[in-house]
Amino acid sequence: MTEIQYKFHPNKKATIITAPFSGGQPKGGVELGPEYILNAGFEKQAQALGWETAVVHPLANTDYESKKTDDKDSYGIKNTSIVSQCCEKIHTAVKSALDSDSLPITVGGDHSIGMATVSAALEHNPDACVLWIDAHADINTPKTTDSGNLHGCPISFVMGIDRESFPPEFSWVPENLKPNKIAYIGLRDVDEGEKAILKKYNIPAFSMYHVDKYGIGKVVDMALDAVNPDRKNPIHLSYDVDAIDPSFVPATGTRVEGGLSLREGLFIAEDVAQTGLLASIDIVETNPLLAETEEHVLDTVSAACAIGRCALGQTLL
Ligand SMILES: NC(=[NH2+])NCCC[C@H](N)C(=O)O
Ligand SMILES: [Mn+2]
Ligand SMILES: [Mn+2]
Known about the structure:
Elements: E1 13-19, H1 33-39, H2 42-48, E2 52-56, H3 80-99, E3 103-108, H4 114-124, E4 129-133, H5 154-159, E5 182-187, H6 192-200, E6 205-207, H7 208-214, H8 216-227, E7 235-240, H9 262-275, E8 278-284, H10 294-311
Parallel strand pairs: 1-2, 1-3, 3-8, 4-5, 4-7, 5-6, 7-8
Bound molecules: arginine (ARG) and manganese (II) ion (2 copies).
């Protein structure tokens, strides 16, 4: 295979942005994701694929983890203040990477940071589209969420859905994502309120049913046809590792049976890379503390690294 030309990153510079944060959901351990992924050698792996890398830690010297609570506020959500502060820092880091022509690879941490990365990608280039790879739609609003966990809400903030239900802490979030600019792949655990939102806004969503019916190759084509029909706009790939079946990726906080095979999961990243349009990526929800065995940790961290490598151009031949 010939080497991929990255249209939006021709100089092949990448910035690994660590987001060691767990405040978007109640379980401890997901804040260790970036450390495990870096210790597994991810930066060197990126370099071996020809990328010039930097690593930045926008949450250094913060103490959000110790401020985490399990109580809902008057808006029905948890940890509003720390999620907002964390996301604002990640947002700034993603923008400054993009401004210096470097591809941001935000490594979580939980998926609440999607509000930061997606909105930054769209601020940088309003034509950008989003592929959200996940078992979950993460489009609850403070009004619809049952759990009150903000990792289930990032998309609604960036789309400005149920605006009146947002606490003022999130008023910094640019509402710059249009419903026809995001497509989902891998869905299989979508809340009733979220289903209503997906329907109302006609958001392209490919569940595991579609993956089984059409095959993953066709599903990625259909998702891109929906959000990037001329294949000319930048792609933000937001990858929640729980999209992949828990038999391959066990160490994550909201496991749902019946997911993507590891190959299907990696194919998505490979195929996005093949478009040459990848502009930014998130790899989130690796929680090493939820593993039952050492092997579970290894499987999950290896899969997270592999997603990153595939997106950065690793090919099988
Ligand atoms: N990023 C994730 N793993 N999100 C899981 C969200 C689960 C559920 N829909 C909720 O709102 O709480
Ligand atoms: Mn998920
Ligand atoms: Mn998610």
